Amino acid sequence: MAYELWSQDNFTKGELSPFMYSRNSVDVYYNGMKQAQNVLTYPTGAAGKRFGTLYQATLSGFTASTFYFETFQYLNECVYQLIFKPEAVDIFLEGILAATVTSTGLDGDNCHNLSSTVIGSAFRVAGQGFKPKDLTRSAGTPNAILSVAANAFTITTPVTAGQVLPVRFTAVALPTTSPQIKAGITYFVKNLTTTTVAVYASAYNAKFDIDRFTLTTAGTTANVIYQNTWALTAVSFKSTPVFDFNGLTSSYDGITFTPTGVAGNGVVINLNVPYAPLTTAYIGGAFIGGGGVTRIINVNSTSQFVVATEVPFDAAVGIQGSLAFLAEPAWSDVRGWPQKCSSYQNRAIFANNDSLPNGFWASVINDYYDFNDLQSDDDSAISWYPSSDNVNFIRFIVPYRSITVHTNTGIYSSPLSDVAAITPTNFSLQLQDSTPATVLQPRAIDNQIIVVSGNDVHTMLWDGINNAYTSDIISVVSEQLVRDPVDETPFADLSRAGSRYIFIVNSNGSMAVYQTLISQSIGGFTPHIMEQYYGDAAFRQVGSSADGRCWFVCEREIATAGSALDIVAVASTIMQASGAAFSTTEPTAITFTTTGSLPTSDPQITTTAYFWAVGYIGDTFFVFTNKEDADASIAAGLNVNPISFSALGSNSKVVPWPATSAFTLEELNQDVKLDCAVYYTGTPASTIATGALFNAQNVKMLGDGFGFEAQGFGNNVVFSAHGVTTPVSTAYIGFPINLVIEPMPLSMTTGYSQKNTSLTKPKHIRTARFMFNNTIGGTINGVPIALTPLDQTPIGEPPLPARGIFEMGLMPGWDDFNYPSFVIEHDEPFDIQLLGIYYSVEV
Predict the structure, then answer these.
(1) 242-329 with 438-529: one CATH topology?
(2) From residue 215, how far is each of 175, 192, 208 by CA, in Å?
(3) Cα angle at 683 between 681 and 685, to 5 degrees?
(4) Tens digit of pLDDT for each residue in 324-365?
(5) Which of 282, 277, 276 is nearest to 298 (CA)?
(6) What angle is formed at CA 713 by the lines to CA 707 and CA 715, rounded to 5 degrees?
(7) Which end of the chain is more exposed for a tag (fewer CB within 10 A), N or C?
């Protein structure tokens, strides 16, 4: 038997499709994994645990299909997180609710299908069935500063405690501070109470009380002005584009149009015969002819209308209709309003209304409200209608190196060979590729545009040499990971070198993460999921910001107390409660209460823990001490370790805690490897309040560097070690992230070509050596990973991330293709980084 050494030290192609398991003739095979759940790869080739998420807020007022989530970079000040939901917009700053705008006129369908862009200091939205709207922020009423104490201002008018908000200061003499507060600059305050506020340079510092300003005096007649008055209002357009909707069906070629003057605001134009389509719908439209360019300001009848001239007529004489242009506004309540919006080169952009689904409109330069397309000056508005040999409607607009327009038939781009700004005279849209974008806004990152078309992910790569985009499908080798996608966003992780990602959220709540670094030939997908001990968890939408931060709206099932039910009978392993209707296919968490005595049971039930109920017949049910036994009983169709009862007790009740859907706002965090983590810092305590998030849930915890686990009860978790409560001063509590790494079937080249391989030939892995970095915990085939010798492990001190080699003998079995040699798993609140796997093999 031949003895071989083989290694895998590059995992950047991520998790590969089952169709790739036998394609060992391609390089992708050797840089990929068979399973890479909750894994992010490093540009250097290592594979590590994905980020965690920090809990920010619990959301309400919408379902998974009736909301829109996006981030809003407000000038250079801060990043807001926006939740558009039926008839309201929730505005968060640093995960804290700053304001809510109500009576927006947007229903669930409007919100779910919004298009958005940032226009200066406004967040603009467009969609079907409503006029585009701008979300804007303005200053509130001055709030007088009364005094200074403990580096906090006392203010006159009460505010909402706990909020982090932007402010400005005015005064006859400004307060004395360090750093010194200045007029005309935005600062941030944290409302410590309803009448005391502390000042900071940034919203992040305010949330975590970092570098609080030192306050010495209150100044003279000083005011703090909260910049937190919000409004969502319909866009007030100065001019709209025009279009001759009736030109093909009702010709005016034979009509003579006679102006009563050559210039002015109020020139009457008479028609020699009536033109039936001429109604008040033409107000705001245009008439061009006889050298004149005019806007229609009134329609008196089908034979007469009134204009304001932008360019005078040559003379007040009759103009033949065949030499004229008569048009309505392209947008209106009747014709429809644009449903897509964007911005590019200091122009606001709209596209696709009901009457002109292929319409593309760019505003006047530096005026985001003027779409006057009647003239062709370089700074005038632009109107364009891309077409092919099919019905063409615009789905998305992506500003990148050019302006790209994504339709149902393909991708169009503005001129690529001309580096000058787009103008009415040089603008065009040329077909680049026949790949249609479907339901997701394409995103630009790493010199490319990522386009999701159905379940395929394409890249439109900018080719600077040829001044063109080249297309390629990048999801083929990981085709199983993108299924019915519902949202995507680019994310540049500024804390990790060379880390550029696209997050694609699937309708089933999983997320496919594509890592890209074209300069290093890196690109691969890995699957990410959220899990809970009780109930389900799912990613729903995602938004990022340019400063390397990212937020998720997640849907989680949280245990919620129902009505207490009277226990009326017990018999052997069966309990009966009046009105009980427990599921027979899913365990339900329950608690017990009593004003008398609890039923006698083995083991004995208590009022201080969760138990698990599985329905039997009618209002009877079985009770289990843990969910694992309840699940096993359902799976086996028979009871596994049920609690047995011998006496009813008195005046006792059972309280169901069904898993009820709720939405959470969570921020990506690299500091802790937990999901929906609650952060605590303060006086050492062993019992930490977490709210309802973790009731009946098994959670992992990080306290002062040590790992713990517990089950939430009564809106709290308790830190304990070996049954002894352990006070901690800094802690994270959250759901574990379950990492699973399984390599591709071992394939060693046995000749000069990868075509000569041992993939299907029986082989015996004698040993495998795993090189890790920055690792604490984890198992390989259930065996704990130990990188530090026992005599070098400090007792009583927090574990330290280790680098080293862990060797395993894998003598049994020769059929590693069908039966994997090893699986790496990790669910601790720490990191794990696999650098490489090194085999000793007999073939």
Answers:
(1) yes
(2) 8, 15, 18
(3) 90
(4) 999 999 999 999 999 999 999 999 999 999 999 999 999 999
(5) 282
(6) 95
(7) N
At residue 840 the predicted structure's pLDDT band, cuts being 50, 70 and 90, is: confident
CA distance 166 to 283: 42
Helices (H), 371-428: none
DSSP string, 610-632: -EEEEE-STTEEEEESSHHHHHH
Counting runs of H as helices and runs of E as strands, what totals does the chain give? 4, 71
The DSSP secondary-structure symbol of 788 reads S
User: C-alpha 342: how far from its chain's center?
Assistant: 19
Q: Identify the CA nearest to 224 among candidates 162, 156, 178.
A: 156
Instruction: Determine the Cα–Cα distance for residues 627 and 634; give it in Å rounded to an integer.
Output: 11
Contact assessment for residue 449 and residue 469, using Cβ atoms and an 8 Å cutoff: yes
390 — phi, psi (to 5°)?
Answer: -150, 170
> If one looks up domain 242-329 in CATH, what number appears?
2.40.10
Count of beta carbons in the 10 Å neighbourhood of residue 745: 19
**The architecture CATH gives domain 438-529:** Beta Barrel (2.40)
User: Looking up tokens 């449903």, which residue turns up?
Assistant: 339
% of the chain residues with pLDDT over 70: 96
Closest CA to 28 of 37, 36, 17: 17
Helix H or strand E encompassing 84: strand 78-85
Whole-number Å distance between alpha carbons of 810 and 124: 60
3-state secondary structure (DSSP) of residue 32:
coil
pLDDT in tens, 45-83: 999 999 999 999 999 999 999 999 999 999 999 999 999
Tokens encoding 633: 């009983």
- Closest by CA position to 67, among listed 809, 516, 664: 664
What are the CA-CA distances from residue 168 to residues 93, 181, 746 (Å)? 17, 9, 63
In the Cβ-directed half-sphere of 833, how many Cα atoms lie within 13 Å?
A: 16
Contacts of 150 (CB under 8 A, 6+ apart): none
Question: CA-to-CA distance for 385 and 610, rounded, in angstroms?
Answer: 63
pLDDT number for residue 170: 96
Which 3 state secondary structure label does DSSP give 72? strand
CA atoms within 13 A on the CB side of 199: 30
What is the rounded average pLDDT of the residues 553-566? 97
Q: Indicate whether 480 pLDDT > 80.
A: yes
Q: Are strands 115-119 and 411-413 parallel, antiparallel or unpaired?
A: unpaired
Q: Spell out the domain ranges in the chain.
A: 3-50+742-842, 143-226, 242-329, 438-529, 561-657, 671-736
Residue type, position 588, single letter: T
